Amino acid sequence: MKVRKAVIPIAGLGTRFLPVTRSVPKALLPVLSTPLIHYAVAEAAECGIETAALVISPGMEGVTAYFESHHGLEQALADRGRDDLLAQQRAIREAVEIVSVVQSEARGLGHAVHLAKSVVGRETFAVILPDDMIWNRPAALQQLMQVHREHGGSVIAARAVAEEVIPSKGIIDAKPIGERVHQVRGLVEKPALEDAPGNLSIIGRYVLHPAVFDHLAAGKAGAGGEIQITDAIAATIGEVPLSACEFEGYHADAGEPQGMLLAALHEAASDRELRQAVLDAIGDW
Ligand code: UTP
Question: Which pLDDT score is estimated for 149?
């Protein structure tokens, strides 16, 4: 069955982006001029998602407002003949139906996803973490959907990472079963290097079987005292198939400043003038 709904959890504290996240939600931080949430919703739309549930924290209404009509702005753009900008504004707010769910306390990604159960119901759904930016055609989520069509069950996005970052990541224990596809035997959140079952890290795109909600309902805290989505997905192993998809595409972790800078440089590289500006600036260093 088609994956029609996506959960986009953005209610975290964003401590790695302090001080700006004191008053600006991380999801509204831009890569050049486009906020992270825009990229996430655009990817959902590209993958045929019809409804996106944004899990926000209290006070983050500015994020949902981003997808509402701004009549004055749109009228001004029309008056000035800026049809290109006007079309861009309309395209993103008409792309997907946006629903918001409030997480009143940051109790973990698993807790945030569970709150969207009322929107998702009992069907296979997608999860997109806007911090994980991936550039590719077909989009990373589309690649996971393809693996879901072939293998059923749940699918998580995976990427091989360097040893030194393994203790800060969700790590996958898996055996390859096809090109870029692995059958998952286990998942461990933030393992010590010596306990890590490999170097494949979970990246923020998921296609999840609704059985994951049953395990989230228990509300058991895991690593860092937070309710971890990784634990709930791991608990479904044996009940539903679980695959990892080593997606194709350039990935930047825009959830921290260095990754955000790399994301901006990646965007700049595809624009002739910006690319030259970057090269000139580096030449002056
Ligand atoms: P992170 O682990 O990156 O946490 O969450 P964070 O709060 O965003 O950032 P730091 O670590 O404090 O800098 C991964 C994703 O899960 C969401 C976040 O918003 C992010 O999209 N999340 C996390 C929630 O929605 N709720 C939570 O309780 C925790």
Answer: 97
Q: Ligand 1 centroid vs 131 CA: distance in angstroms?
A: 9
What is the C-alpha separation between 41 and 97, in angstroms, rounded? Answer: 10
DSSP for 116-141 reads THHHH-SS-EEEE-TTEEEE-SS-HH
Q: Which helix (H) or strand (E) holds 56?
A: strand 51-56
Q: Which residues pair with 242 in a beta bridge?
A: 154
The C-alpha angle 81, 83, 86, rounded to 5 degrees, equals 115
User: Each residue of 37-87: pLDDT tens digit?
Assistant: 999 999 999 999 999 999 999 989 999 999 999 999 999 999 999 999 999
Residue-by-residue DSSP string for 212-232: HHHHHTT----GGGS--HHHH
**What gap in Å lies between CA 50 and CA 117, rounded to an integer?**
16
Prediction pTM value? 0.96
Computed over every residue of the chain, the mean pLDDT equals 95
How many Å lie between the centroid of ligand 1 and the Cα of residue 6? 17
Domains contained in the chain, number: 1
Q: What is the CATH number of the domain that holds 150?
A: 3.90.550.10
Tokens 């004191």 — which residue?
22
Q: Looking at residue 115, what is its pLDDT? A: 98
Residue 140 CB–ligand 1 contact under 6 Å: no
Q: Domain containing 50: what range?
A: 5-284
Tens digits of residue pLDDT in 232-274: 999 999 999 999 999 999 999 999 999 999 999 999 999 999 9
Atom of ligand 1 nearest to the CA of 255: 3
